[in-house]
UniProtKB/TrEMBL annotation:
Domain of life: Eukaryota
Biased composition (Low complexity): 121-130
Name listed for the protein in its UniProt record: Uncharacterized protein
Biased composition (Basic and acidic residues): 110-119
Species: Desmophyllum pertusum
Feature: compositional bias, Acidic residues: 131-140
Region (Disordered): 103-154
Length: 334
């Protein structure tokens, strides 16, 4: 190798090393820039303190659990009072749910003795769960067990549909007379609780003082046992939100909505004297100007307002002012 060639080779190697170092430095520089951007986006201690202060203020403004509960109860009472005066318009809903108001013909059944049963356990806080229903195998096994002991089959529970948060008398109906050794029993309402049963005078029904209440809608299995724990059969009971159903129907029909809200305004008008929820013909029964603008004008006198899509609203923890704001939004976007 000549000296000239050696010098050229050494220069090429030096240039290559220099290029590699430049590439490495550029890579390091790019990574440092990325880290700087991330650091700039990270909140400072001051930012965190400001956020904590805003959150604490927001939490203070939120209504308490009791306030939310009383707010819903007030709305529920209002809706049901108005619905009572719109029986014809809301007939399908009220007919379907009418079973929740009483136990119908089964109310004639009386306890065999004067002992009045009490609910044996408080309502479970777990509400509706996915395991309310047993498997098909368990159901068939229970039915065959009932037949082996010669017990008549359970026809059903009356009422089979009840409103949320209500407790009503009920009857477990059988398709024949109960054996003489069955004097009482219990009804196990899945996750809701257990209720004591008494034998009715006709010897073919068991009578319960009140259904356990539920805070959630759903279909619940009801297992029936005699006083000695023998399985007699099972049936199902449906808990529904009547307020939900009434509001959905009212919001899906413009004419019903007008009548509904006119009655609602009358019911909540604190300044009107002697007014009642029966007032349907007058648009001015002492409403404040604020109520007129937010409800009468926006909801009652607007023929173009159509709220059928509002039937998807859930929860219904709404005041009339909330409804007027929602209606105003839909009107402006239509």
């Amino acid at each position: 190798m000549t000296i000239g060639f050696q010098l050229i080779t050494e220069k090429d190697v030096a240039d290559l090393i220099k290029d590699l170092e430049i590439i490495k430095l550029e890579t390091i520089h790019a990574k440092l820039e990325e880290q700087n951007e991330l650091l700039e986006k990270m909140p400072t201690n001051e930012d965190i303190e400001n956020m904590q202060e805003k959150l604490s203020l927001l939490i203070k403004e939120l209504p308490s659990r009791d306030e939310m509960s009383s707010r819903f109860d007030a709305l529920e009472e209002l809706v049901l009072r108005v619905a009572e005066n719109l029986k014809e318009e809301l007939k399908p809903v009220l007919q379907v749910n009418g079973a929740s108001a009483s136990i119908g013909p089964a109310a004639e059944c009386q306890p065999k003795d004067e002992e009045r049963g009490d609910q044996m356990s408080e309502n479970s806080s777990s509400g509706v769960s996915d395991d309310c229903s047993d498997s098909v195998e368990d159901f068939l096994e229970n039915q065959s067990s009932s037949e082996r002991h010669g017990h008549p089959r359970v026809k059903g529970i009356n009422p089979s549909i009840v409103r949320l948060k209500t407790q009503v008398p009920f009857v477990i109906e059988f398709d024949g007379k109960l054996p003489g050794d069955v004097e009482s029993g219990r009804a196990d309402f899945a996750t809701l609780g257990v209720v004591k049963l008494m034998k009715a005078d006709d010897d073919c029904n068991l009578f319960g003082i009140r259904t356990p209440s539920s805070s959630k809608e759903g279909l619940f299995k009801v297992k029936i046992y005699s006083q000695d724990g023998s399985f007699l059969g099972e049936t199902e009971i449906l808990y529904i939100d009547l307020v939900d159903e009434v509001l959905k129907q009212a919001l899906s029909n413009r004419d019903i909505l007008k009548k509904f809200l006119k009655l609602a305004i009358t019911c909540v008008d604190e300044n009107s004297e002697g007014s009642s929820c029966d007032t349907l013909n007058s648009t001015d029964v002492g409403f404040s100007s604020e109520k007129k603008s937010s409800l009468s004008v926006l909801l009652l006198q607007n023929n173009n307002l159509f709220l059928s899509n509002l039937s998807v609203i859930g929860g219904f923890e709404l005041t009339l002012r909330d409804l007027s704001l929602v209606a105003s939004h839909w009107h402006s976007s239509s």
